[in-house]
């Protein structure tokens, strides 16, 4: 049970896994610090071999197996990062590993888990649905469970992150970490309180999967069908972890899906680092409530970088749209030779770049002598968009930027 977790357990885990997992950097982000008004230190768990903090807890558990348990092999259930951590270190230690993953798990995480030599079983639509499959495997094959969060040895391994952060940046007064099942945050809480009693500890969840936040407030959570932060999409957190969170964590807050997307994009643009949704959740929280952190020395855990490329591509595109750096303009033009070239010339004069052009003559209410034009542009932002519109209108073109892309021509 995690409530038995002690500071000494985390210290022992740190010694046990030392030299087998990366002591990841904790670096001050000057730009994000300026934007938020806080000193923002980033703990790059994305630099682990499997690009996730999950290696720590998985390895600590595996190193504590008895000889009999090693011979029997292990099983776990995971949406990806814990799976990779178990698979990678089990292979290193010569232990057979079976991984049960939800069917929706991003393909890159499934592929990477298989690369490490584990047997992967895709079953169920959720983390909870996988548990029944795991229970059957334990009964039928005698495998040993390496739970992704509700295990004291796993939580102790995750807690080593806090030990490293406070050793690397002793002036930290606040730690922020994503929370799904509670293993990471509970382990970090025990570790951090063991070093500094008065440190502030914040957890962050997505509004789509608010299990921990709702339970701490005595509310009934309402879940969405999916989230960009699938690594923390847990409907039922660890019972023992919840006791630690109640006692030692200041607050668990929620962030929106779009907030997480913006944080992923900011880390990509500013820090040149790729994070998955859960990994960027801490930054999303600081961006949502900057007044809570202003003037503080804040450590954020970038917990993982295993994001599906199609999802990352969508986040980039959607972020460009939200920042008005990619816009769709609607124009009415005369349907005569040279009209399209004239529009292109106006746009070119402002320095905007044309990505797409859709020229519509038939499906429109305009007269037969007119055409409707839809132009997708790359711009420098809202002010640049207005410059483009001014150029078009000054040239006699009717042009609109419909930010919500709703409605029809009047």
Structure characterization notes:
This protein has 410 residues and is α/β, with parallel strands linked by helices. It folds into three domains: 2-52 and 152-318, Rossmann fold, CATH 3.40.50.1100; 55-145, Rossmann fold (3-Layer(aba) Sandwich); 324-401, ACT domain (Alpha-Beta Plaits), CATH 3.30.70.260. It is 44% helix and 19% strand. The protein has 17 helices and 14 strands. The strands form three sheets. Strands 1-2-10-7-8-9 form a six-stranded mixed beta sheet, sandwiched between helices. Strands 5-4-3-6 form a four-stranded parallel beta sheet. A four-stranded antiparallel beta sheet has the order 12-13-11-14. The chain is elongated. It starts with 6 loop residues before the first helix and ends in a 9-residue tail after the last strand.
Write down the CATH topology of the largest domain.
Answer: Rossmann fold
* CATH structural architecture of the largest domain: 3-Layer(aba) Sandwich
Count of separate structural domains: 3
Portion in beta strands: 15-25%
The radius of gyration is 25 Å
Largest sheet, spatial ordering of strands: 1-2-10-7-8-9
Estimate the helix proportion, in percent: 40-55%
Distance between the termini: 65 Å
- Shape descriptor reads elongated
Q: What would you call the structural class?
A: alpha/beta
How is the biggest beta sheet arranged?
Answer: 6 strands, mixed
Highest-level CATH class of the largest domain: Alpha Beta
Helix count?
17
Number of strands: 14
Give the mean pLDDT.
Answer: 93
Poorly predicted spans? 405-410
